[in-house]
Amino acid sequence: MRLEKCWFCSSTIYPGHGIQFVRNDAKIFRFCRSKCHKNFKMKRNPRKVKWTKAYRRLHGKDMTQDSTFEFERKRNRPQRYDRINTEKVLQAIPKISKVKATREKDHITKRLSVGRVNRRTEDRRELEQSISLVKAPSVLKEDATLTLPKQKVTVSYAQTENTPMEE
Amino acid sequence: MIQPQTMLNVADNSGARKLMCIRIIGASNQRYAQIGNVIVAVIKEAVPNMSLEKSEVIRAVVVRTRKELKREDGMIIKYDDNAAVIIDQKGNPKGSRIFGAITEELRKFRFTKILSLAPDVL
């Protein structure tokens, strides 16, 4: 039994799922579900379809180069069964996938953190400039408790990493 | 799902290029032929100067169908065309080479010679 990858979306195909299409040049296309199969029949290029892994990797949305990918590379040389080796591999698989998952998550968090910083500075600027939409500036000046103190805060990357991710 | 009047490609080098199915060998009421079934076919197009000629009636075994082949483990395989390999009465292929990928289903039907000649077995 082998867990294959869908040709279109690159998700794993478990046994009993999906369709395999054999072209006349004997190239096999495996699909995880009819959605991918139908897109293939429409002759769509997976590198241009936004929800596929191919697109995400091509456009830098997902991690592309990492040492954890080396473990999953297909090796065509058959290995003699070695019990100790097999046990070690079976123990290592969940550890590797956990490391891979955290690294992928960090990649996305890092990519999105720039936007978070920009949004915070935007919000701060809007608060300073457009506070008149909330209350008239003359009213704010009369009551000392209502006026916002002007604070200059330098937003650095290290600071934003410590704050919890907003939803 | 090959039935009479279905045009099939020929997947070997026996000399024929296109076949038209006339009859399915097996149960008298069998409507469709799947991969591994033997059909009676007439040669519609042939390569010149070879042993097989046009409008000759021969037997062939279906090796590729556009209709999906379902396996017990849930695997579903479908090909891009309908194709057959020309055989004699005993089940030996007439040609010496097979083109294209062949499925393991032929082993159940005892076409081992075809499987051994196949370049790729799924």
TrEMBL record, chain A:
Subcellular location: Nucleus
SUPFAM superfamilies assigned to the protein according to its UniProt record, in alphabetical order: Glucocorticoid receptor-like (DNA-binding domain)
GO function term, MF aspect, one: structural constituent of ribosome
GO biological process: ribosomal large subunit biogenesis
InterPro entries with a match to the protein in the record: L24e/L24_sf (IPR038630), Ribosomal_eL24 (IPR056366), Ribosomal_eL24-rel_N (IPR000988), Ribosomal_eL24_CS (IPR023442), TRASH_dom (IPR011017)
Cross-referenced Pfam families: Ribosomal_L24e
Keyword terms, alphabetized: Nucleus, Ribonucleoprotein, Ribosomal protein, Ribosome biogenesis
The TRASH domain, residue ranges: 6-44
PROSITE patterns membership: RIBOSOMAL_L24E
Membrane-spanning ranges: none
Entry GO terms, CC: nucleolus; ribosome
Source domain of life: Eukaryota
PANTHER family found in the cross-reference section: 60S RIBOSOMAL PROTEIN L24, RIBOSOME BIOGENESIS PROTEIN RLP24-RELATED
Protein name stated in the entry: 60S ribosomal protein L24
Automatic annotation (TrEMBL), chain B:
Pfam families found in the cross-reference section: Ribosomal_L14
Location in the cell: Plastid
Gene Ontology biological process terms from the UniProt entry: translation
Chief location of this protein within or outside the cell: plastid
CDD domains: Ribosomal_uL14
Gene Ontology molecular function, alphabetical: large ribosomal subunit rRNA binding; structural constituent of ribosome
Keyword DNA-binding on entry: no
InterPro entries per UniProt: Ribosomal_uL14, Ribosomal_uL14_bac-type, Ribosomal_uL14_CS, Ribosomal_uL14_sf
Cellular component GO terms, alphabetical: cytosolic large ribosomal subunit; plastid
Entry-linked HAMAP family: Ribosomal_uL14 (MF_01367)
Annotated family: Belongs to the universal ribosomal protein uL14 family.
UniProt name for this protein: Large ribosomal subunit protein uL14c
Native species: Rhynchospora pubera
